[in-house]
Fold:
Amino acid sequence: MIPRYSRPEMVSIWSAETRFAIWFEIEAHATSKLAELGVVPKESAENIWKVMNARKAEHGDYGFDVARIDEIERTTKHDVIAFLTHLSELVGPDARFVHQGMTSSDILDTTLSVQMARAADLLIADIDALLAALKRRAYEHKDTITIGRSHGIHAEPTTFGVKLAEAYAEFSRNRARLVAARAEIATCAISGAIGSFANIDPQVEEYVAEKLGLSIEPVSTQVIPRDRHAMFFATLGVVASSVERVAVEIRHLQRTEVLEAEEFFSPGQKGSSAMPHKRNPVLTENLTGLARLVRGMVTPALENVALWHERDISHSSVERMIGPDATVTLDFALGRLTGVIDKLVVYPENMRKNLDLLGGLHNSQRMLLALTQAGYSREDSYAAVQRNAMKVWEMRGDRAGQFAQNLKEDPQVTLSDAQIDAMFDDAYHLKHVDTIFARVFGTGKD
Amino acid sequence: MIPRYSRPEMVSIWSAETRFAIWFEIEAHATSKLAELGVVPKESAENIWKVMNARKAEHGDYGFDVARIDEIERTTKHDVIAFLTHLSELVGPDARFVHQGMTSSDILDTTLSVQMARAADLLIADIDALLAALKRRAYEHKDTITIGRSHGIHAEPTTFGVKLAEAYAEFSRNRARLVAARAEIATCAISGAIGSFANIDPQVEEYVAEKLGLSIEPVSTQVIPRDRHAMFFATLGVVASSVERVAVEIRHLQRTEVLEAEEFFSPGQKGSSAMPHKRNPVLTENLTGLARLVRGMVTPALENVALWHERDISHSSVERMIGPDATVTLDFALGRLTGVIDKLVVYPENMRKNLDLLGGLHNSQRMLLALTQAGYSREDSYAAVQRNAMKVWEMRGDRAGQFAQNLKEDPQVTLSDAQIDAMFDDAYHLKHVDTIFARVFGTGKD
Amino acid sequence: MIPRYSRPEMVSIWSAETRFAIWFEIEAHATSKLAELGVVPKESAENIWKVMNARKAEHGDYGFDVARIDEIERTTKHDVIAFLTHLSELVGPDARFVHQGMTSSDILDTTLSVQMARAADLLIADIDALLAALKRRAYEHKDTITIGRSHGIHAEPTTFGVKLAEAYAEFSRNRARLVAARAEIATCAISGAIGSFANIDPQVEEYVAEKLGLSIEPVSTQVIPRDRHAMFFATLGVVASSVERVAVEIRHLQRTEVLEAEEFFSPGQKGSSAMPHKRNPVLTENLTGLARLVRGMVTPALENVALWHERDISHSSVERMIGPDATVTLDFALGRLTGVIDKLVVYPENMRKNLDLLGGLHNSQRMLLALTQAGYSREDSYAAVQRNAMKVWEMRGDRAGQFAQNLKEDPQVTLSDAQIDAMFDDAYHLKHVDTIFARVFGTGKD
Amino acid sequence: MIPRYSRPEMVSIWSAETRFAIWFEIEAHATSKLAELGVVPKESAENIWKVMNARKAEHGDYGFDVARIDEIERTTKHDVIAFLTHLSELVGPDARFVHQGMTSSDILDTTLSVQMARAADLLIADIDALLAALKRRAYEHKDTITIGRSHGIHAEPTTFGVKLAEAYAEFSRNRARLVAARAEIATCAISGAIGSFANIDPQVEEYVAEKLGLSIEPVSTQVIPRDRHAMFFATLGVVASSVERVAVEIRHLQRTEVLEAEEFFSPGQKGSSAMPHKRNPVLTENLTGLARLVRGMVTPALENVALWHERDISHSSVERMIGPDATVTLDFALGRLTGVIDKLVVYPENMRKNLDLLGGLHNSQRMLLALTQAGYSREDSYAAVQRNAMKVWEMRGDRAGQFAQNLKEDPQVTLSDAQIDAMFDDAYHLKHVDTIFARVFGTGKD
Structure:
């Protein structure tokens, strides 16, 4: 997580202030339930909330003093103990009833769940914004004809709107995956040293889970099992790979020879300090790199699953790094991609120009089918079309209409000129755009 | 995929015979629909099915001649064309109506979907078998007390059944993940060269999808988008990591000094050719390695997502290898793990012996709480317990009852002997085993 | 390892026949040394070689019967014992002196070293062939001017020969890395059950190592330490990534809009069954996928390092798969890349055409420097150049000479027309091509 | 890179101050050479050094004002331009001769080389410290007998010193790898927009390289080729995996049931807030996690190799993160491991106790050989040893001397009691410890 690729809202989820606030709420809810169960005095439990809610009303948050907690931790060498000590400074003697029968992991793991769930919420919102931008631009360019390319080579026409509809469909899937990933990690464990509830009633876990909007972990050890976190980070890796796919598409479209679309380039912007003529797709190149970073965090998360027995702590350093890094980086990437799509400069006339570059070769399949239907064998049809196509391929200079021309001049092709010309209307290729839009957006109309 | 780590049923999904059978069914269903749409003659479409179903009735399968197809491919240099040529050898002239308006990718990608869906079905069945074994052994050892370990160090007691219940819960999650992953890739695309349906009606796709039990791909390019496959392989990586977790647990339990459980060792088996005394956990060590292999296939699948434009073919070589390798390896691993669990030799008496190894230290938390409740400050309580615990820790030889003894002799611990002894009953730690079983299995009873 | 992406020479390194031949040689050399040390009878040691060398003289190899060994293994459940049994069938009673004091791992790990060293030799030879192709084509196109591109956007001119020289330099480095990687794994361990030489004299290891061209492993456990193998596979991952870099370059150059170079397309070849006009860069796309596969094997090899204590066997399944897969795949990829480079069709006229596409903008830096030297501030110079460049950028249609034209017409640019024209000779950009070639190839001349 | 797992010296390599100091030195050396070549005035070049060296003499460093540079960058949106502007504020008008004919990448990439080379130097020094600690402890425990374990199961004896000698040999290899990795990335490129030296003489590159202790990059594009960086990070991944291996060994040795060694536990330390009896191997568990993190950065670095054409900028975000993260994390890990080894508490008596746990079974191979040599067939010998060994294996309670006892009582084992007893002296297993030490340390003596 580096500031250059971070947005404040996601960063704040991982701040010390947020962490302590969640710690407090877990502890205070647990104390409330313990009071209800008769383990600690009711008035103490209530007073803790009263004092801290008053602070919140005043400060906007609970107002923990992070520096003070750090100071105490330097003595106690234990973060949760330092926090509890500071809490008692704020709350007074009632604080001694906090944390009864709980272990540090109960707090730490449940807090991580809350943080990851909140991070997932932001990422889902990011995708919603991206979907909105994709949909808007897709409808804008629903009928903007452009060449479809397989292997980087011209194939047959499609529309730029359909390209964006593909991205929309892909990110709709990613949204659903993130919702599932969120559910994976939104669990609460307050079950003690090895998950046996020896020193705390399972009802406390149930109560805290409900208060925090989590489900209970059916069986925990000292920790929430790490297959959940692995699935979460694996999902982020898939989403990042989709970001890369769209980024690579735009980088291709902006290539000098293609230039069908371009990242927005503001007046006064400099593409290169040395070469004043440059406008580079630096945002999408950056997204490509960010995707690599997020993907690189998947395997460490998978390696974290096989903790020893009821837990070891090897996962902890991994999560301290990839928890913030993966979510902050992906959040930034999704935001950046949304901006790119939103402001993407599209050049329909270049799309048209490129489409015509090969002198009509994008209709080679139609011509093949026409010849077959006219009674030629598949082999002869293929040979005739390929022969005339390759002549165009190898031409230099203006090829406009050249494929049709060649076919008309080929003595072995006995279709009439009119029949040949009929193979070159673009509408043929676009007749199902409405169908596709209806499948993706629910309707072909905006 | 190597024979040593393969099972025939999963291997057969990836055989040439299976592939050609799926190819045929896609083609034949598509032809049926094209007949219905009036594009090809109805009797031809019907005859194709008639001839081939007759072969199937006779041979048990459609009886494609793989060697013959290979021979044709050496001439045509195109696998789908070779297949179609062979099909016409079997079916006669009606075969010329097959593949009308379709492209090779329509067949290839939809076939991959069918294969991956079938592979997922096998994996789900594998997990069901594993869950059954885990559940049986979990109930068998529901009350078999054993020490819980954090950091490899004795913590507090749990039961061996609870350990297995954890594995059960984890694989229940993995089952749900595989069901979701199956849905990800069970889609059908018959949409032509760049997904525009220019030469084939979308109704054909819908018809074939329904016949094959797939959903339609809302918007494809030439290919089904690879975020789907990425999600599938990422899920296999998570499942493999869970396999590793259980395998590592068993490897630990079989260590000479621990020996609480052991892989089944058959009479006549040799653990080592050089050292006749050995019984090694080779199956679970092998599972650890297989997990690494499956995990290693996740990143290539993620890298496959960002194909260029409407497709490039870089994903193909990756999938030719990891498609079979990941599914065959994981299938084998799940089967092997089920066998290990099923026949695992458990040593409750060693569990008991190990539990007592530290002379009662596993009750240090209880003692801490007891002192706190007796009015000692948390700091004093901790110091008293730690002081007496460390004396036991550093003892050599028999420590039975030593922790309680030390506490009784400590002048600063004013609890009565009876109060101290009361802290050492095991039932305290196991009182919520029923709760945990009810959460995991729906009921605490078998 | 699948036949489609395999070459026989590398495959044969991993065959059962090769493995057994190496096993035999290790065993027989060890027996020779044991005879010298007086542990076994000299005549027996000599006779073993005599019998087997006679077989070799007759059969071309030692003629082990793999099926027979498999058959024995089905009874003994131990591969090395099965081999030794078969050996005694071939050699007679003297065979009982083979394998004295050795353990299976001594044979297996040293054999893996021999196989990996041989694989490295093939890969180094592959790179030598690739380097030769790159050098030949580099000199052929030493002066073929082409636009250099940063961010996919035209920057300044270079030559196609320089591009190939870059690839040459990169693969020279890869060659050196492979030589180092070969040295990493070319070690011999014959040290017994946990590496203590309890039952075999270290001199045996030294002798066998020398005979096999290996170094001794200074300290082994039961196995050769896996950091060596990790380094080997990591190196293959780097080489594969370089293969991808060159492959991606060619894929870019073959794009329809660029078409500066093209994979060789043979007469009669079909680029697409549906679209007869297509010529796709399928070989380099395939190389991109193969690179992903090899890279995916790096992490499992790294995870293999942390074996437990003196060894566990988790690495074995990983190496059974990635040993052959990584070397066979990379060997195939290097061979394919060499073929692509060798037969690459280069279009200098298209390079020229593309170079001029932006109407001279590739001299924007020169113009910027010229204005600065003429006394304009850097800011004013930049603004003037960018202003006139962007006008060209946004033009459609023929831009020939347009950048110079704009500058001449700009009243704020007071350079003379002659001064401006002088900024547009290409030789300026190519003046150090000889220097670069001299650095890379040792000389600027062929 | 998070403070918790960072050491200041490595962090400072990646600070803004260090970066600007390297930028300055590259620029100033280049200007010196340009002055020598007559491109810029000699007195200006000299004055720049004079002014800045004076600042350095005064401040200890060049005293760049990072905040001021950031402020300028907010206007110029370009980091190198902001730096140059600030430099001119410090140096005055002579600064206008800086950066003549150079591009930003010349500075940025060469700076990264310097930073990575310095990072490598620190890592090499870290390994030297680790090697020293390993050697000291290895000699200390050269004769401390301990059981060697394969598969986690007792095999045959070795010494704890030999275990440490293995680690020493492994890290000696890692040192050599880091030296090679350093050479990979210690190159200098000052070659302009696409590496053609169009606007700057290659002699400048040569001069700057020499001054900075780098080699020249034989052929660069706009950037230094990323196969170099890939190799660097791959090497860090191997070193991290070796760290994990040693860490896992220690975690195993500290397990409650084994307890042959223990991380140092200071008086006053708390292993667990809830369970006062705990002493956990938290440092080595942490090292396991840190290894996962460093390994996870290898693949992104490999993916960075295939930049498009003469460069795209996708690698940049990756390196901004993994450059500092991988080196800082590995530096911290090596330091922590050195501390662990240095202060490791070793329990020879527990090693002895564990060695005897199986009642002498660790001599089963010797017994097998003895029986064979006494004329028993290999099969009968194996059966006899296994039969008597398994009886011990399945015993509970004290097994001291039990294996020998069983053998003596076995009527089918006709060796005398004396012959059997002779198989149980430990010296047999340790007779080559000196050989091993001589191989690893150059001498068997301290």
Q: What stands out?
A: The mean pLDDT of chain C is 95. DSSP finds 19 helices and six strands in chain C.
